[in-house]
Specification:
A hairpin with a 6-residue loop joins strand 1 (54-55) and strand 2. The chain has helices at 4-13, 21-34, 36-52, 69-72, 87-96, 123-131, 146-161, 184-192, and strands at residues 54-55, 62-63, 77-84, 101-105, 137-140, 165-168, 195-196. The chain folds into two domains: 4-52, RecR Domain 1 (Helicase, Ruva Protein, domain 3), CATH 1.10.8.420; 68-196, Dna Topoisomerase Vi A Subunit, Chain: A, domain 2. The protein starts with a helix and ends with a strand. 45% of the residues lie in helices and 14% in strands. It is an alpha/beta fold. The longest helix has 17 residues, at 36-52.
Length: 199
């Protein structure tokens, strides 16, 4: 059996993380055999999301509007700013902790080999925000990987230069781990026990 369009569908599905050739093939066959209506709805939502979801101009998370719901919420504490690597990490912190401050989403971490430097991470925007004088504590919730630690170190330096207290998530988050895969209890404990970053 050979179909150019089917092969193109299978190849397109492989853009998803963790989806190899066999999984993509199973997905393609499933929607064609059993759920064409679901496939059409998925296609519509994917197109709509790609066309209409951008980034918040203040924190860089995903948003349909210029300013996201979190940044626009006047009930949140503007003196606290939590820096995370991805919108998934932001969601993990939001769901696992009682944090009511604001966020800044890097959309990556320092990794020169992957072309991720300070410019790509929006460090200039973050520095401007810290310079406004509203933020009193910068919570560094980057992942405890080598790149995440290097990113946190740079951000700590920028915070100190702006006269802002910089803290890092405490013990409980394993070295080499990713926030999105850590259970809520562990993340909540680590978040609650964050510590000052030493000079």
């Amino acid at each position: 059996m050979s179909s150019l369009l089917l092969n193109e569908l299978i190849e397109a599905l492989r853009c998803l993380p963790g989806v190899g050739a066999k999984t993509a093939q199973r997905m393609a066959f499933h929607v064609l055999e059993r759920d064409r209506a679901g496939a059409k709805k998925l296609a519509e939502k994917l197109v709509a999301a790609v066309d209409r979801i951008g980034n918040c101009t203040r924190c860089r998370t995903f948003s349909e509007d210029r300013i996201c719901i979190t940044c626009a919420n006047t009930q949140r504490d503007t003196s606290l700013l939590c820096v995370v690597e991805t919108p998934v990490d932001q969601l993990a912190v939001e769901q696992a902790t009682g944090y009511r401050g604001h966020y800044f989403v890097l959309l990556g971490r320092l990794s020169p080999l992957d072309g991720m430097g300070p410019k790509e991470l929006g460090i200039d925007l973050l520095a401007t925000r810290l310079g406004e004088g509203e933020v009193r504590e910068l919570i560094l919730a980057t992942n405890p990987t080598v790149e995440g630690e290097a990113t946190a170190h740079l951000l700590g330096q920028i915070a100190r230069a702006a006269g802002v207290r910089a803290t890092r998530l405490a013990h409980g988050v394993p070295l080499g781990g990713e926030l999105e895969f850590i259970d809520r209890g562990t993340l909540a404990h680590a978040f609650g026990g964050r510590q000052n970053i030493e000079h």
